[in-house]
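Quick one, tokens below:
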């Protein structure tokens, strides 16, 4: 995999001075995906499932073809794939539809301080309404979720386990397969936040045996406004829709109505048609490259950058041992927002803040961090520019008395 060649596929990178290190927030989009979106808007930009004319038939076929691609991408069945607005909507759908209808004050929900707000807040809401107890897995001293600590909180009262596959702050890969196996032993269902996993590693929902899994298109080369919720058929069957309107219904009477089968009962109104078609093109792109190549490349860049970072005075790296392409760090005494403004001056895009994961930022006992996230279009040259900029930022802030 030649990242220098791949850069040519990404029009934003036509600016050769730009160093994009914020893929964990959103990835750049390749020409192949943009072309598919253009094609939809230029050639058959009509609604799906409704029109009894050829154009609508074409749009419907392409929309459903993307559902097939997504299902193969994670080894799910076709009707287990629900298109949503993003990972957040998907995780909310699980909590609202499954959580609110299956939990009581006798039950427990396991989450962690390593979660994105989109995974923990929907379950806080379920807990507030149903009075089911929210239980946090204690993190180990590196800030990881471990099987050992998970066993300490799992018990017969556990009805839902809602954890991430890969943390968006620490980049750690959770031991999710073993967590799922143990959860099933006590009869709990597991909802996996795979927003930071799907862009970087092969996911097999049958092998994991997870009950629900969510991710977003825009973090994996696809368009914004499209996400995926996977749910096991047998669970989706009994789950009620959480939004009501066009296309999700079967028969409508004056005072009641019936719903279509899954996935359609969860896809109310005009769905994100272009988004789904674009996501299909993104999946083709990733499949062509192969996840083995992508993750090896990201890890190489991350290890290279961490080694160089640690040689710079006043740099604190919080996740040295992470398995993926995310580095979370600070320059001692410098607020991350000041640092990131300095990096922007060098045309380097990086994230600073709490990364929509305030619990782990509090756990780290800092106000915010800097975050670098590598992807397939990043190169060693990007790393070198980034390291140079960090050195200059550190020297500049020290010189002005930070
Ligand atoms: C781990 C994780 N979960 C969920 C989300 C939410 O994704 P979206 O904003 O696309 O809904 C993100 C986004 O940063 C994330 O990193």
């Amino acid at each position: 995999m030649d990242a220098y060649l791949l850069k040519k596929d990404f029009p934003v990178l036509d600016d050769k001075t730009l160093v994009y290190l914020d893929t964990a927030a959103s990835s750049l989009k390749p020409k192949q995906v943009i072309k598919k979106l253009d094609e939809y808007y230029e050639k058959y930009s009509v609604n799906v499932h409704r029109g009894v004319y050829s154009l609508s038939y074409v749009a419907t076929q392409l929309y459903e073809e993307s559902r097939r691609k997504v299902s193969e991408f994670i080894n799910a069945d076709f009707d287990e794939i629900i298109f949503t607005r993003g990972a957040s909507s998907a995780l909310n759908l699980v909590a609202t539809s499954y959580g609110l209808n299956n939990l009581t004050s006798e039950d427990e929900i396991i989450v962690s301080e390593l979660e994105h707000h989109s995974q923990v807040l929907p379950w806080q809401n379920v807990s507030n309404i149903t009075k089911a107890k929210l239980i946090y897995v204690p993190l180990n001293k590196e800030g990881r979720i471990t099987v050992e600590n998970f066993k300490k909180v799992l018990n017969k009262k556990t009805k839902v386990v809602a954890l991430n596959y890969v943390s968006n702050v620490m980049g750690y890969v959770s031991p999710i397969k073993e967590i799922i196996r143990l959860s099933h032993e006590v009869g709990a269902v597991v909802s996996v936040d795979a927003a930071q996993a799907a862009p970087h590693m092969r996911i097999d929902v049958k092998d994991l045996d997870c009950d629900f899994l969510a991710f977003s298109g825009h973090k994996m080369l696809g368009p914004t406004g499209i996400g995926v919720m996977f749910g096991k058929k047998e669970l989706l069957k009994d789950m009620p829709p959480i939004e009501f309107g066009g296309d999700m219904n079967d028969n409508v009477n004056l005072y009641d109505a019936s719903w279509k089968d899954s996935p359609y009962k969860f896809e109310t109104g005009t769905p994100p048609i272009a988004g789904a078609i674009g996501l299909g093109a993104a999946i083709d792109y990733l499949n062509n490259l192969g996840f083995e190549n992508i993750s090896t490349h990201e890890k190489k860049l991350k290890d290279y950058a961490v080694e160089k970072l640690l040689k710079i005075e006043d740099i604190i790296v919080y996740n040295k041992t992470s398995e993926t392409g995310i580095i979370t760090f600070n320059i001692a005494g410098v607020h991350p927002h000041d640092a990131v403004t300095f990096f922007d001056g060098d045309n380097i895009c990086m994230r600073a803040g709490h990364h929509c994961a305030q619990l782990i930022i509090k756990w780290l006992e800092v106000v915010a961090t800097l975050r670098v996230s590598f992807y397939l279009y990043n190169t060693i040259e990007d790393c070198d520019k980034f390291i140079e900029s960090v050195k200059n930022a550190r020297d500049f802030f020290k010189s002005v008395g930070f």
